[in-house]
Amino acid sequence: MTDQPNFLIFMTDQQRGDTALTDSIYKAKTPHLDAFRENGLQFSRAYCPSPHCCPSRATFMSGLYPSEHNVWHNVDVANAITRDLRRGVRLWSEDLAEAGYAMHYSGKWHVSAYDSPKERGWGTNYIGHPQAHDRATDYWSKGMEKDWSGYEYSGDEADTRSRGQILRPGYPTYTHYGEGTKTNDEASVADGIHEMEINAKSGSPWCSMISVNGPHDPYFVPQRYLDRYDLDEIELPPNFDDDLVMCPGLYRRVRDRFAQLSREEHREAVLHYLAYCSYMDDLFGQVLQALDGTGQRDNTVVIYLSDHGDYAGEHGLWTKGLPCFRSAYHVPAVVQWNCGLARKGEVEPAFVSLSDFAPTILELSGIHANREFSGCSLAPFLRGETKPGDWRDALFTQSNGNELYGIQRSVMTDKWKFVYNGFDYDELYDLENDPWELENVASFQEYRPIRKKLSRRLWEFARERKDACVNKYIMVALAEYGPGVAVEQKQEI
């Protein structure tokens, strides 16, 4: 066994953070993760920088925010503006590979449309979500009949909708949930386990990352996992009936898509989502069992996390996107390291970002990277060395929209969350008194000082992270308080 620890990273896709919190109505039945948490440190307030796979995964890999790594949306779709990391951006996997780690990546990548994991330090045999930038062609070039063949197109008749379906005239009919599976996650896990076992015999420190597609929509789950749940016990969240009247119009437009589903169907969708989390948990259990079989569990840093969350019925919404509610940003994050973790079985409530994992991995591996990160190493938490006031008191997000582009930035403290929407009016939530984010008070004049203070913090962060959303032109400079407030004397909240 080497002095440097091994790393095993299991990343799910679109898993809400509170599916791993015992006091949540969304707590999933995840016995393997629950047992894992008992000997690990759980970060209960971990957040992604953007509610989308590609920018969040790029942040996890680089330790940088989207404004720095330049991945803002799905790099593989036809209307992608950027498809790759900014030139010069280095990933922690390249550092580990250069330091002699045996590296293997299996499963969904979604960091670059041009560089595969191999170009970024990983040895890889199996990519469960293959590079798809060749799909980014003109949809009209071969005719709609050929380019979109195999789809059932929605008509205008609402009574033709089947259970769990959403009709979209001119688009393929969308089926939100069902029995079965539409992923190759089991193959990704099997490949990851096989290569981990090979690397464990190499005599070198090793790093294996297994990235599964679940519980990403649509929620298709094998029946044995659906059977673990009772529909009568499934609750809709307290904010399910939110009319979103005080929120940007886009929020309502998105919600109206899902309004075709009945309340019963929404509850069925929640059941399928939670069952999907249970399915991924069984795969995680297989990985842990294989790790135990190598005899190297004690000196392996095991990280369980997700790239972003899911609304899962909150505000009548599903999946993720520009509606800047915490459920789309909140992710599970648990770290276990038997021979190096001082805080086993504890829950840490500090604000944690996916950008914190790159400097953490490098510090734990003993590699000194000569570059700046957006995030900070979590190693002091693992060692039990943090004290009150040592850590950040706010969490920032950056989004330019998924593929419906729109500037959106937010800042969250213990009490407040302020959302700057460049495409519509802003949002302000009192999280202490309104934890389900039901009342947007941004238009109330009595909160104007709060809006200004939070705007100042938002723009200060933008300056630190080289965020370019500071155009002064009259038609786009729509913030109530623009970047100029960042040069005024800083005021604490």
Describe the structure concisely for a colleague:
Helix content is 26%, strand content 17%.
CATH C-level class of the largest domain is Alpha Beta
Shape descriptor reads: globular
Q: How many strands, what sense, and barrel or not for the largest sheet?
A: 9 strands, mixed
Mean pLDDT: 92
Strand content: 15-25%
Count of folded domains: 2
Q: Gyration radius, to the nearest Å?
A: 22 Å
CATH architecture field of the largest domain: 3-Layer(aba) Sandwich
CATH topology of the largest domain: Alkaline Phosphatase, subunit A
Count of extended strands: 17
Query: Treating each run of at least 4 consecutive H or I residues as one helix, how many helices?
Result: 12
Structural class: alpha/beta
Which percent bin holds the helix content? 25-40%
- Which homologous superfamily in CATH is the superfamily of the largest domain? Alkaline Phosphatase, subunit A
How would you characterize this protein structure?
The chain has helices at residues 31-38, 53-62, 66-69, 92-98, 144-147, 185-200, 223-226, 249-258, 263-294, 357-365, 379-383, 448-464; strands at residues 6-12, 41-47, 102-108, 123-129, 165-166, 174-175, 177-179, 206-211, 219-221, 300-306, 330-331, 333-336, 346-353, 395-399, 408-412, 416-421, 427-430. The strands form four sheets. Strands 1, 2, 3, 4, 8, 10, 11, 12 and 13 form a nine-stranded mixed sheet that branches. The protein has a four-stranded antiparallel sheet with strand order 14-15-16-17, with helices on one face. It folds into two domains: 6-383, Alkaline Phosphatase, subunit A; 413-487, no CATH class. It has 493 residues and is an alpha/beta fold. The radius of gyration is 22 Å and the shape is globular. Strand 5 and strand 6 form a beta hairpin. Helix 6 packs parallel to helix 9 (263-294). It starts with 5 loop residues before the first strand and ends in a 29-residue tail after the last helix. It is 26% helix and 17% strand.
